[in-house]
Amino acid sequence: MSKQFDVIVIGGGPGGYIAAIRAAQLGFNVACIDEWKNAAGGPAPGGTCTNVGCIPSKALLQSSEHFNHANHHFAEHGIEVKGVSMDVAKMIARKNTVVKQNNDGILYLFKKNKIAFFHGRGSFVKAAEGGYEIKVAGAAEETITGKHIIIATGSNARALPGTPFDEVNVLSNDGALNIGAVPKKLGLIGSGVIGLEMGSVWKRLGSEVTILEGLPVFLGAVDEGVAKEAHKAFTKQGLKIELGVKVGEIKNGKKGVSVAYTNAKGEAQTLDVDKLIISIGRVPNTIGLNTEAVGLALDERGAIVVDADCKTNLPGVWAVGDVVRGPMLAHKAEEEGVAVAERIAGQHGHVNFNTIPWVIYTSPEIAWVGRTEQQLKADGVAYKAGQFPFLANGRARALGDTTGFVKFLADAKTDEILGVHIVGPQASELISEAVVAMEFKASAEDIARICHAHPSLSEATKEAALAVDKRTLNF
Ligand code: FAD
Ligand code: NAI
Predict the structure, then answer these.
(1) Complex prediction ipTM
(2) Residues of the chain with pLDDT under 50
(3) In sequence order, what E strands does 302-425 have?
(4) Which CATH architecture has domain 158-280?
(5) How far apart are CA 124 and CA 310, in angstroms?
(6) Which of 50, 260, 313, 358 is the most buried (most CB within 10 A)?
(7) Distance 213 CA to ligand 2 centre (A)
(8) Which residues neighbour 214 within 8 Å (Cβ) at sequence distance 6 or greater?
(9) Atom 34 in ligand 2: which residue has the minimum CA distance?
(10) Which CATH superfamily is domain 357-469 in?
(11) Where along the chain is NAD(+) bound (predicted)?
């Protein structure tokens, strides 16, 4: 007889492993299946985020930022360093260690929460007596059954038609995080989140970086003022970003990659690079789930169709994270995982899509929550805006990092915060205050009247809230 569980989670990324932990906390007998392999063929739970996404990219961003500081900013502090060099192999090895620490941490959490972990691919099979079972194909093959199934199989990098990833010259996020030596010339297609983060890493390490973007506007989903400020900063750093291009034929040869494209003026151009990263978005991953056998509904993008509660069209089958609609973010996947486990337990799990923060971990960092100024205009909402530059913040000056600003958007009548947009130092940390404020439906005045430590970057948040009412104190 097959092993029986209350809850089976397919996928051990942030959506899956967090759902498994929450379900176990709620007293369920839980299994989690994940197929990711480490270099030795062993289990490496944590999904895209841990293995080839959030965590390794932040490790490389940190290393490259240290290198950049040593080269360009130590001197102004009176620190003289000579002969700064980068051992790329060591940087990559450190990144791999950080990844492994996270993999091991998740394996420990499975044990701690008494979750049965299966290393292999999970797929639906039709059961003889009707319904379905889950086949696990790993070192051995076995079939397990669960009263509830949570699918959290994530996403894969989107390839350009006719240009497969070889992960040697034409790279997805996977190869982009494993380049063995600083490429002299690096090309990227897509100036979205991965394009900017990975472009920044290799630019800081000395590559000549060109990003080709199809849209005529830079970071179209970001608040216009923030996008403009960030574009200025990236251009100053030497990132070459060409907007409004149309990418044509890509030739991947022994000497590198040649990209034919038309620029915004309609002129034919060629970009010759040593490595090309393609970062044009990601596609939901249902490969190998055998969804057809059980009639699991997918939409036209290949995402699993779910309702607001993450229920699929099959009874007892739920789906969360990148494989369903909504932003492809680790924390969104986690929130959905927790909410689904709680709904299975009869509780009222909830995800507030209006307060999901976004962060781009470049320098300056970009972070936001809620609606942008252009969205409020398009929605016809009467709003007030307040902005405060880091240039006028004492802590930012002491840090030597005064690029950017904090911007508040509040309802013109009620003063409720509708959006907060930050470009500048530690934006990734500063945005949390805005998320909490919006979750509690705070007004700009609420933040303006809260005592913030001095000197701290968070004072820029308070001042931006004061700016909504045109009463900044330090600007
Ligand atoms: P995944 O993390 O993709 O996990 C899915 C897991 O399921 C994988 O381990 C996969 O092997 C496994 N799986 C798939 N099918 C099967 C099957 N049939 N059987 C068994 N196992 C299966 N998000 C952020 O919030 N912050 C960031 O800083 C950030 N940085 C990123 C950087 C990069 C370069 C990339 C590519 C992404 C980044 N993301 C970031 C996005 C983030 O990684 C995803 O949103 C997140 O991983 C989604 O979680 P998930 O659990 O839905 O899927
Ligand atoms: P993206 O959606 O952020 O950006 C893709 C960019 O490519 C867009 O600007 C798009 O206009 C452009 N593009 C699409 N097709 C093109 C074409 N044919 N030619 C030229 N340009 C084209 O996708 P990206 O950067 O691949 O990242 C995928 C997802 O991973 C992100 O949307 C995000 O959800 C997640 N992620 C999150 C991070 C974070 O939270 N810090 C970091 C990295 C990724």
Answers:
(1) 0.99
(2) none
(3) 317-319, 358-360, 365-370, 383-389, 405-411, 417-424
(4) 3-Layer(bba) Sandwich (3.50)
(5) 18
(6) 50
(7) 10
(8) 190, 244, 245, 246, 247, 280
(9) 328
(10) FAD/NAD-linked reductase, C-terminal dimerisation domain (3.30.390.30)
(11) 190-197, 213, 281
